[in-house]
Design a protein that fits this description.
Helix content is 47%, strand content 12%. The structure holds 3-hydroxybutanoyl-coenzyme A. Residues 467-551 form the 3-hydroxyacyl-CoA dehydrogenase C-terminal domain. Monomer.
Amino acid sequence: MIRTARSGAVLEIVIDNPPVNALGAEVRSGLVAAIAEAEADAGVSAIVITGAGKFFSAGADIAEFGKGMADPQLPEVCLAIEHCLKPVVAAINGTALGGGLEVTLACDYRVSAGGAKLGLPEVKLGLLPGAGGTQRLPRLVGVTAALQMIVSGEPVSAARAAEIGLVDIVVDGDPLQAAVDMAGSSLSPRPISTAPVAGDLAEIDAFVAANPRLFKGLEAPKACLEVIKAAITLSGADGFATERRLFLALLASDQSKALRHAFFAERAAGKIDGLPNDAAPRTIARVGIIGAGTMGGGIGMNFLSAAVPVTMVETNGEALERGAALIRKNYDATAAKGRLTAGQVEAAMALLHPTLDFAALGACDLVIEAIYENMEVKKEVFARLAAFAKPGAILASNTSYLDVNEIAACTQRPQDVLGLHFFSPANVMKLVEVVRGRETAPDVLATAMALAQKIGKVPVVAGVCYGFIGNRMLIPRQDNALALVMEGASPEQIDKVHTDFGMPMGPFQMTDLAGVDIGWHRDPDRIDTLKDALCAQGRWGQKTGAGFYDYDAKRQRSSSPLVASLIEEFRARENITPRAIDDEEIIVRTLYTMVNEGAKILEEGIAQRSSDIDVVWLFGYGWPRYTGGPMFWASQVGLAKIVAALDRYADRAPGFAVSALLRDLAAKGEGFA
Ligand code: 3HC
């Protein structure tokens, strides 16, 4: 865990705790012991602390949080380093995050490798830097630069760190020798804690005014401001005490528990239970996409951006040209925002091969079908594809709902077939549901997971059922939202409950964005439902300027009097006397019912673990991360409360058959694992 070695009169202390050199109990006590050893040894004149491998340290061991951490605590470790009478130099060999960076701040000098990233990401876990970082950083780099790092949680490069004074020297390659040389050059100790803070309270106000979105719905960023204020206004000791108090309060908060859950859930989702060890991924050198629509193009962009060549096939020349032009337009828009260079755009576009020749798919190692949702057409395409595709090529459907086993059955190579369900816009949204068919081969699954990670996605394995994980859970939510409108709620009220909860949009705003006409029978004379009525009037959502809401040319939303009167008409038609519906009922019927569906998904083995369901909602639908995802949130609310509420509304609207698993866990007083 902690190794020491002598280089002349310099003691090298190496943090060696793979995979990321997290600062668990043994590392903390080892660091304190090594510092004491150096203090006691008259032959040691200076100390260097570094990390083994590619990380300096990723900070505190997050898995220890909430379990009662053994002494010494990290603030004490940092104090032991800072109080050491011999100079201590940090050799930042690689990424230093959170408590890892705080250890370097307790050192007197910092030498960094050019490729290292330095950051205080605690806020992303609902915390604040709790080992003196909030008190030392503003003293070292000034209030504004410290605010930027602590409140955003974003790391800086070594070059930027040198610019703001966070590190003294940046070197190419391993900084250990440079640090040892520096330590051996009769340095004096230079503790940061006793230096004055460079900056004032006005910088905090200016930062808050310039960055409102960093604070939305979140507790930790506000607490970060408070501790930086304490660094400016209080004595050193009181500042450190304030940091400790607020850190411990955040550690116990629901938001931090949820964000820590999300951190581990995201990493667990990439693992497939029971996959044989010999399921080595297949090589994917070229990807084929069938369909040059918005979805096909968006999917293709992910691969182009990761330098994987793409063959994009269409049946019609105009659609093909439009698709390729849309890809270029999207890249140009990103370049205009400064997030890509012109050279990167051209490099990506050069890898795109648009063609009308279906046989070109024969050169691809993975082909993703991204045409419209029609089983018969998809089956035809797959049967044809199976004839062209080379042996061992993986055949994937981007279907959102349809039966992947049925599609696979018409290929005579069902072991090569799976679903890859991307979320719209596919070049932006991080989620991919990897749909495992009955006969999908283990190495096909392993390939899909690895490839999805390579293109920067978060893959989640799902079994075959209507709508897989995410869209299946949408069904009770959307059905109940519509039923609630018929019973007396307004779309605005329901949407507001969802946006107040932290969702980026409510059920009706989402319908307008996706298209009210999805699944419509297209017969304007057949009006059975409110949605039929909207579609018959051309109110297909944002794309036609009107849906449940009206939209102006800039797609700004406003309430529609026409929709309000249509709703009245429909209620009258069905003899419904509208009643007042409170927000609590909306939560029960549109969110608890989703949890219930999630429990059924678990029960049926469609999802591997409840945290995978959370990941689907966090990354596919913008569920507020600070609640951890629907299943974690439900466990926090209490499953017994959820079951009781579902039972209370059991006679109303669809989706209320309570899952046996949910009922069972609730009866035992447990949550989802
Ligand atoms: N504690 C415990 N485990 C950690 C960890 C940490 N700080 N950081 C990473 N891990 C684990 C991951 O869970 C994963 O475990 P697994 O293989 O069993 O799934 C393994 O290390 C590798 O992590 P990644 O898959 O994320 O590897 P990457 O190379 O993609 O990313 C990383 C590495 C950038 C370090 C990323 O893991 C990361 O961002 N870690 C969290 C850093 C962080 O938030 N630090 C602050 C901690 S809080 C703190 O320090 C409090 C202090 O102020 C008192």
